[in-house]
Write a structure and sequence with these properties.
This protein has 147 residues and is of the alpha+beta class. It has a domain of 96 residues. It is built from two helices and eight strands.
Length: 147
């Protein structure tokens, strides 16, 4: 039996393959479409900035779901000294409390996060969400009048 007979078990290269050979292809297509659906559901940022008057990080989130009532929180990493020692660096994961909500509609929400507990300043803050959405910005030293 030559190698082509494994692909076309009917014994002839000119005959059509059996239907059972389409099953792995259909499974592969299903897997690819599932991965695409998951990536379409990912949260993202449309705008991020530091508001010095309130000492807050202001993030406009773009997300999908069945309702607009998603709540977002931050999971802070450890402050690290920068290699050039001008500012510290810290990574922050943005978490969605309804991350399993089916992606039926698109929503935008402005979320404000207080930075009064940020121990390292000035700092380069890198926000991360979903598998690959990243945004970095500089947070200055504590504003005058803030603890």
């Amino acid at each position: 039996m030559n190698m082509w007979q494994h692909l076309w078990p009917t014994g002839s290269c000119s005959s059509r393959p059996r239907r059972s050979l389409y099953i792995p292809f259909a499974l592969l297509l299903g897997l690819v479409s599932s991965i695409h659906a998951l990536s379409a559901h990912a949260d993202d940022f449309s705008k991020v900035y530091y508001d010095a008057s309130t000492d807050e990080l202001v993030v406009t989130m773009i997300y999908s779901g069945t309702n607009p009532d998603h709540a977002f929180s931050l999971h802070w990493g450890q402050c690290k000294e920068a290699t050039d020692s001008t500012a510290s660096e810290v990574e922050v994961e943005v978490l969605d409390n309804q991350w399993e909500d089916p992606a039926r509609h698109d929503f935008n929400k402005i979320v404000r996060f207080s930075l009064t507990g940020l121990p390292c300043r000035p700092a380069k803050v890198t926000l991360r969400t979903a598998p690959r959405f990243i945004y970095s910005l500089m947070i200055p030293a504590r504003p005058v009048g803030h603890p």
